[in-house]
Design a protein that fits this description.
heterodimer, A: alpha/beta, nine-stranded mixed beta sheet, five-stranded parallel beta sheet, 9 helices, 15 strands, B: alpha/beta, Rossmann fold, globular, binds flavin-adenine dinucleotide, binds adenosine monophosphate, transport (chain A)
């Protein structure tokens, strides 16, 4: 088992509850291909016949080799089964870096794995590169106000990669599937008692990595009226975001929150409707290429970062915008 | 696996990990020489998520007998005043790991140091915030669970604590998950949990008499500059120029049309 490329980059693939490759995989493999040879690891349930399909999807997204660990424990135990699988894969592959999605699950796996193997960890990377001394991770911190780079003093670097931040994609490769035996570590783990899949209008793009985002704030006034945000998002083919105040008021679930403690987005277009532009909100969106804001308060701080701001009422401005866009389509 | 005898005898001990951060309401700066937070540039506060984590512990202590809440932080000496706020809110004691050698510690060193301090203090449950507003690492809880050889349950948006276990709801991108773990355990909580109580005058007075332990790395058997341990280092830092504002118009009945024109002009629609 030592025939892996010397510049192997181990990528932990995420799978959806249905056993399909998660959308984060393409970016992770794309990132890996920039710094070495992508070797992917997927953890699946046994007996569902998913391994082959996963390996094909991963190879199409650029994995040179696909390791699969089949275990039931990942459905019932939090974090530890993936860490055990990753530890086994890392021991076999001896990678230069380990790339993991900066999702809630991914961060836990990365944290435990790094602690277990005493590997340095770089979190929330927006890019990776390689120089003479090894793998370098790029970060955007303090709401995009600073760019940093970090690297390991020696040994493999564990990197969690911000979802949607990597645009490069790896070339498809032939399928090379290997199954890996899991040696359970016996580390204490929390029990997963139940999982309730999120109900989403799935035709809309995902917020993370979206090229267009339309967000609404407290100015929308109610969950019913927040539909206006969704309507404009659909007219533009955009993802839906929100301020924390809108989330707190129950207009929309928390996973749509943009900002300091929500999702960080860098889309081509960001439309802020009825959002004041508190510093913690701007921290998650001010790296957008184009920002449009509608707010009835001319002094709202959101206008300080808007390329095009309209001082006005969202309930008159936005319906007009939607019909102007529909007009154009015809 | 952690043997049962490592659990504290007597009252249940909850350690809440708190962090001092630059106030997000102000301008935050990094020192371009060292890459560290420029503490003089902005007001320092207890991170809001730390306060919510403390609230979870205090709420449980208020509803069950024999629960002791300890706040713990690894931070420069100057953070002591901020940490004391947690005592004023109601924590029984504080442990402050302050050591100049730990300035700029990477996540690995931070986790090793905090794990040593947690073991020294003894614990049944450790509560952290899911993400801090400055580091935004969000991996510390899992690292600590591994080092302390206990279960992790992170990103909880609701928490139930009993004498034997902790459980809660975890909302991830895929959906809502119910998880539970026997104690001892490490959890992290999200900002969906209630805002923290404010310290009152009585609490502020009482805080002055509460135990406040200050520890160095050496007290914990930690060698901060151990070059034999791989660490993560910052290799470059650059400041991005602030974004400039563009056009601002007042809606005169054609605001929506104007936006549509802007979108079309810039090929965004
Ligand atoms: C530690 C910390 C972390 C935080 N993290 C985040 C985060 O991740 N994301 C986030 O968003 N916030 C975050 N916040 C909260 C942040 O400080 C603000 O409270 C929040 O962003 C305000 O949301 P808002 O703009 O929707 O609400 P408000 O500030 O109440 O603004 C509503 C705006 O709507 C306008 N308005 C009202 N009616 C209309 C109308 N009919 N037409 C047009 N405009 C109208 C008003 O003029 C106002 O400007 C955080 C705060 C802290 C302390
Ligand atoms: N230096 C520290 N001292 C104590 N707790 C910390 C420290 N750093 C992080 N934490 C805890 O870990 C959580 C997540 O922080 P972070 O990893 O910075 O996102 C915080 O909310 C704290 O509970």
């Amino acid at each position: 088992m030592t025939d892996y490329p010397a510049d192997s980059i181990l990528v932990l693939l995420e799978t959806s509850p249905a056993g399909e490759l998660a959308s984060s995989a393409a970016g992770l493999l794309g990132a890996a291909s920039l710094i070495g040879t992508p070797v992917a690891l997927a953890v699946t349930s046994p007996g569902r016949g998913e391994s082959q399909a996963l390996a094909e999807q991963a190879a199409a997204a650029g994995a040179e080799r696909v390791l699969v660990v089949e275990t039931d424990s990942a459905q019932t135990q939090l974090t530890v089964p993936q860490v055990d699988a990753l530890a086994a894969a890392a021991a076999a592959v001896a990678p230069d870096a380990v790339l993991i999605s900066n999702s809630i699950e991914g961060r836990d796996v990365a944290g435990r794995f790094a602690a277990r193997t005493s590997a340095p960890i770089a979190v929330d990377a927006i890019g990776v590169s390689r120089d003479d001394e090894g793998v370098v991770a790029r970060h955007s911190v303090y709401g995009g106000a600073y760019n940093l780079e970090s690297a390991a003093t020696f040994g493999p670097l564990v990197v969690t990669v911000r979802q949607g931040a990597i645009e490069s994609r790896a070339e498809a490769r032939p399928v090379a599937l290997e199954t890996l035996e899991l040696q359970p570590s016996g580390a204490a783990a929390a029990t997963i008692e139940s999982v309730e899949a999120l109900e989403e209008a799935s035709s809309r793009p995902e917020l993370r990595g979206a090229t267009k985002v339309v967000s609404g704030g407290r100015g929308l006034g109610s969950a019913e009226k927040f539909a206006l945000v969704e309507e404009l998002a659909d007219a533009l083919g955009a993802a839906v975001g929100a301020s924390r105040a809108a989330v707190d008021a129950g207009y929309i679930p928390a996973n749509h929150q943009v900002g300091q403690t929500g999702v960080s987005v860098s889309p081509q277009l960001y439309v802020a409707l009825g959002i004041s532009g508190a510093i913690q909100h701007k921290a998650g969106m001010q790296t957008a290429k184009n920002i449009i804001a509608v707010n009835k308060d001319p002094d709202a701080p959101i206008f300080e970062v808007a390329d095009f701001g309209v001082v006005g009422d969202v309930f008159t401005v936005v319906p007009q915008l939607i019909s102007a866009l529909a007009e154009r389509k015809r | 696996m952690l043997a049962d005898e490592e659990r504290t005898q007597g009252p249940m001990k909850i350690i809440v990990l708190v962090k001092e951060v630059p106030d997000t309401y102000g301008e935050r700066k990094l020192d371009l020489e060292t890459g560290l937070a420029d503490r003089a540039a902005s007001e320092s506060v207890l991170d809001e998520i730390s306060e919510r984590a403390l609230e979870v512990a205090l709420a449980h202590a208020g509803s069950a007998d024999g629960v002791e809440v300890v706040i713990m932080s690894m931070a420069p000496e100057t953070a002591a005043t901020t940490i004391r706020k947690g005592l004023a809110m109601g924590a029984a004691s504080a442990v402050h790991v302050a050591d100049p050698g730990l300035a700029g510690a990477d996540l690995g060193l931070t986790a090793r140091t905090l794990a040593a301090a947690i073991r020294r203090t003894g614990f049944d449950l450790v509560i952290a915030g899911n993400l801090s507003t400055d580091g935004s690492g969000g991996v510390l809880a899992a690292m600590l669970a591994e080092l302390l050889e206990v279960a992790n349950a992170t990103a909880l948006s609701s928490v139930e604590i009993t004498a034997e276990s902790v459980s809660g709801t975890r909302t991830t991108d895929d959906g809502a998950m119910r998880v539970s773990a026997p104690l001892p355990a490490v959890i992290s909580i999200t900002e969906a949990l209630p805002d923290a109580r404010l310290p009152n005058f009585k609490g502020i007075m009482a805080a002055k008499k509460k135990p406040f332990e200050t520890l160095t790395a050496a007290d914990l058997g930690i060698e901060p500059q151990d070059l034999a341990v791989a660490s993560s280092i910052m290799t470059a830092i650059a400041e991005k120029p602030p974004r400039a504002a563009g056009v601002k118009i007042t809606d005169e009945g054609d605001g929506g049309t104007k936006i549509a024109e802007f979108l079309i002009e810039n090929r965004l629609a």
